[in-house]
Amino acid sequence: MNELSFEPDWVSAPGATVVALTIEKSYEPNAMSEVLGLGTQELQAFFDGDLRIDQCLAERLAASVGATARFWINRDRDYQAQLEKAANKLTSSMKFPISDLERFGWINPRRYDASDALAVARFLGVKTPADFDERYGELEEALAFRRSATFDLEIGAVSAWYRAVELECARLKVSDWSPTRFTENLREIRSLTRLRQPSEFLNPLTLLCAESGVAFCLVRAPAGCPVSGIAQMVNGRAVIALTSRHLTDDHFWFSFFHEAGHLLLHSDQIGIDVDAKADGEDEANEFARDLIVPKSSWSKLMSLDVSKFSIVRFARDIGVSPGLVVGQLQKAKRIRYNQFNYLKNRFQWHGTNLERA
């Protein structure tokens, strides 16, 4: 039998073994595409461990690289078992909101006899707990800094949401990041607060951000994810993502302007909004407040004889929705948090789409 002469590493993908053998046999890796009957993308998927070895591919591997077809079938089987073992270790070390991941279409609903661990790991783009730490380590640190008491319960849900944000933003075409253009566009974005339907303001908001080099997306938070929004630079690309957890216009727009502040003031950090009182948030909060109510109008707001009509009139005068004015009055403790909430525009989730309630 023409079996391999070395002990293979079962944790690595079968494709890694093939790469090692092509070097040993002086094959050009690109030549393997023709030999194995795989296209360029399929070959890369095979090398990465994302393409299963069927009988046909096993026979081609045996004929071109060595060993037997049975060896390659077993190699693939053992690799899949190791993947599932690693995925089970990952999903047992932290809590993932599986039902929401399925409901939002992030992973496929499992069969009654199948493990959801592999589906979660594949969605996250990782194979092992070490991969997870490498990929989401910075996010873990940012969350732990703000939420140490509940960190272990939340990191699974937050990382799943963050991965959905990555995938959504990757589909967006945006210009080069321009802080100047973004600052200018924030004036027009501010005027969108007067629109009541998400279907009316989300598209222009996304376009105005894209013109400025910001990939903006709204991604529903799964159960256990406490995040309202996040802002960061990813490979030179600015990203803002919101969850609209509180389902009112004042929270939605304050969160957006807060994250915009992070991009413009703290672009070298991950701005993850889980607690408005967390250290380092004051500047972003002030930035958002001053966008909603200009400094020149703040004293007038603080001396306002508060009523439904005065709030609506003040909001009209400064060019924002009444709900945002109510939110600022509540934050400033001019009114209680249970007052004038009927002036806020309320939203609801329909699947993964935000709608007016």
UniProtKB/TrEMBL annotation:
<dbReference type="GO" id="GO:0003677">
    <property type="term" value="F:DNA binding"/>
</dbReference>
<dbReference type="Pfam" id="PF06114">
    <property type="entry name" value="Peptidase_M78"/>
</dbReference>
<feature type="domain" description="IrrE N-terminal-like">
    <location>
        <begin position="237"/>
        <end position="325"/>
    </location>
</feature>
<dbReference type="InterPro" id="IPR010359">
    <property type="entry name" value="IrrE_HExxH"/>
</dbReference>
<dbReference type="InterPro" id="IPR010982">
    <property type="entry name" value="Lambda_DNA-bd_dom_sf"/>
</dbReference>
<protein>
    <submittedName>
        <fullName>ImmA/IrrE family metallo-endopeptidase</fullName>
    </submittedName>
</protein>
